[in-house]
Amino acid sequence: MATQTAVDLAKVRNIGIMAHIDAGKTTTTERILFYTGINYKIGEVHEGAATMDWMEQEQERG
């Protein structure tokens, strides 16, 4: 069963990034997550380690 945790909604931000294929959307998002302290490591797209590429198909494509 999933565990629920209380989150202060004043600290939550939703963003949307739209661009052409291979324009750097995932790379930009990975940098945002790293520099805001959400992730301790920058995930690289070409290594299949990007946080935002969580689907197996996305990881294979790079």
Can you walk through the features of this model?
This protein is mostly helical. It has a domain at 20-61. Helix content is 27%, strand content 0%. The chain has two helices and no strands. It starts with 24 loop residues before the first helix and ends with a helix. The mean pLDDT is 81.
**Could you give the distance between the termini?**
32 Å
Beta-strand percentage range: under 5%
Give the oligomeric state.
Answer: single chain
User: How many strand segments?
Assistant: 0
pLDDT averaged residue by residue:
81
Approximately how much helix is present in the residues?
25-40%
Structural class: mainly alpha
Low-confidence stretches: none
Number of H/I helices: 2
- Taken from the alpha-carbon principal axes, the silhouette is globular
Q: Provide the gyration radius in Å.
A: 14 Å
Name the helix and strand elements from N-terminus to C-terminus, one letter apiece.
HH
What profile does the largest beta sheet have?
none
Notable features of this structure?
mainly alpha, 2 helices, single chain, 62 residues
Ordered list of secondary-structure elements with their pairings:
Elements: H1 25-35, H2 56-61
Compact summary:
With 62 residues, the chain is mainly alpha-helical.
